[in-house]
Records
---
Amino acid sequence: MKKTFPLLALLLVILTACPKKKDQIADNATTAQLVADSAYLYTKEVYFWNTLPGIGTYESFNPRKFVGSDLVKTADDVIKSIRALQPADQFSHATSSEESDQIITGDGTDWGFWVKSGLVALPDNAANTRWFVPYVYAASDAAAKGVKRGWIMNKLNGSELRGDQASVDKLNALFFGTATSANVEFIKPDGTTQVISLAKTRFTENSILYSTVFTNGNKKIGYLVFNTFLGTQAALNDLLAVFDNFIGQGVNELIVDLRENLGGSTAMQDRFANILVPASKTGQTMYRYEFNQQLQQGNFPLVKKKLGITSNDYFSVSTNTETFMKNKNLALNRVLFIVTDNTASSSELLINNLKPVMDVKLIGETNTRGKPVGYFPIELFDKVALYPISFKTVNSVNAEVPYEGFTPDKIAVDGINKDWGDITEPCLANALNYINTGSFLAAAPATSLKTTTRSVVSGVLNQLDEKRKRNVGIYYEPKNR
């Protein structure tokens, strides 16, 4: 069941039927043909780059050439064909309605943890690569059985896991396949091993993985690990509760850990930004959405009909400009973000929106993902959800998130062998040192990880990350207009 913010009657655009266009879609068309037709026609209407010549007409594009037995793959192939026309678009896709709901609400069936590769020795090769757990969701079976960030997933059903293709294939089959149970041997930070029988279960993700307050003299430093921008009231309540606690403890400095946050709800981003922003910025522009000219000029008959929209200004710039409205009595002059290449979309939107209005510092081992564009889901037959890129965002000084991502102010290794809140973890250690002394650390803290760069086997390892990243992003949530 979807849970939504009560002040928004329509948090997500869900279109549940297929368009009909005379002499284009026959009455006796199959469901797969209708999915292919709809994927093309909806994408052509809302796609941010919808004037590209290759999109053509229904007849010239012929979406039914992509029809197959799998409805999601049929829609995805149509969208990928259009995506291929725009090099900047690495994101448009289709997924199942079930996966779409899970992305938005965090409610779904999952293993409850992820893995990230790291080197335990040099040289940089497959033999020295291990698979670390970067996070675990609290309500998952893995968490219930004690799995924590920093553990190494050493064996899967008795087979050793390293940085080779066979290991990546096994992990892909586990995380994206049909298996519902697995025996996993973990290596803990103290070197001991534990074999755990894990189950894939249904639960709701917790967007806040960890929070605490560090004290150094008169500095009260709030530290928050925020893993996803879920579009639910429960997620908002959790966020507000953490900041109520910070305010109660007198927090006057803040570190927000976004290293594994791939994005999500723009409405949740708005609420987060309004907590962090200085009160003096209330009423100033936070950011604006920019849609294609067809949408901005009110020419969107398919979307208009399905949403019952009567105003042609629904996608106009003036209607889609967000302003700061300070929330909570938290007075900050600056905020430090911990980032990686898994910091994307709404995470980058938050950073980009705050940069013009307060001091922002980034710490991490790589640039952020680089995704200034987003989408809203278009659902077909309660089975397929289309995600064609439909807009980009720009902040109050007309700057967008760079496609190459934000470069950290301090390069520091992602200490994936350390649990949350460990002050020896390189990124957190640098953030704390900067707050306490005004400078980042000159030398990296001691760590058993030699490096987490994956130069030799990156092509293999990226196969796992890419499958995870395709179903996440930045989601536009239309308001009542």
---
Amino acid sequence: MPLLEPPKSPEPQPTPPPKVAATEKVSSRASAADDVAPRKSVEKAGQSETAENEAPAGQKGSHAWILPALLSVGLLAFGYTLHQLYQSMLEREQSAVAAIKRADIRSAEAADARKQANEELQRTTAFLRELNERGKRLDAKSAELDARQRSVEARESALNASRAAISPPASSPVPAQPAAPEAQPLPPALQNLDVETCDRLAANPTDANRRAGVAGTPYPALRQNVAAAVEVCARALTAAPTDNRLRYQYARALQAAGRQDQALPYLQQLANQMYPAAFNNLAQLYMQRGQPDIGIGLLRRGAENGDADSMVDLAGLIESGQTPARFPQEPMQLLQRAAELGHQGAAREMANRQTQKQVIDMFGNIVRTIGR
């Protein structure tokens, strides 16, 4: 069952305002209006002050992020600048380290180059010292040969004196044609002595047909004893008129004495008989007569027949430009062949050229080593 609701109390009725007179109502309304106006002005003033106070606060709230952002950007820029500076310093340090390494490598290379240069210099010095020793030995041998030559000359003088004591020598006529010169007949012993003396006085050191055991006499030494050589070789040729060796030595003695016209027919006959040493002497005669073409042709024939003097003279003419070479290395080949045949001048020339080449090669190696 539903509960019984308590009885409701009557609601209080609003008390009606007391009735006022009309005049009182007008005055009260005027005073109320006067009260409301000041309140409204005060409220407006308060609202304006509140608005003025609240507006900067709002503006401050909208611009507060700028300063931190600027600080962050500045810090980032400063950090980036520091990073770039660090990278630049690091690159410079690496570049300096690389430069130091390159300098060390170059210094090591320069030290190696100096070491190699010193070694090359030491080898060159040793080589030059060896050359000096060889030169001294050659000088000693030359002095020994000079002493032997003087001894031979002394023996020849003694032999001439002994022949003069046996029979007075007669002047040996020089034939105009290549025939044995006329001379007084001598005993066989003296004839053999004349042949031996002719070999020693007039034999060419480069004549492949010279007598065995005879060293030969160089042209300057022959000119010093040319009169005795002409005389003794004329007698030797009379004793052996068919001996081409004696004929050549007699013609060589005549040529050394300045009697080229008398030597010419002997040399021509010898060249026709392909006597190798005669080609060089005959070529010299034609060159002295102003016929170099004939002389060069004779030198080539002599070189082809194995004459060392012809090889050396032909090489000199080629290198001086007086006659063309048949191939680029012809002068060196001629000198080498002459040296192999025992020509001392060619051997010295080849040794000098070899030495010069070695020295040039050494200094070239030094310059190339330093240039690295």
---
Amino acid sequence: MTANTRRDGEELLALATRLGVRSTVTTYPFERAATALDDLASGRFAGVAVLHRAPSPV
């Protein structure tokens, strides 16, 4: 196993840009985590899913 360096990450991102790699992100509010898991299991989205929560009131 090897550890990647910051430079490795920079090179990877530069290569991805040159190759036209695009990411697809589907967001769900934290309260809908069960829906996100259901959608994942059923293949209802491509890419990654991210749970988010509302910002805390100040």
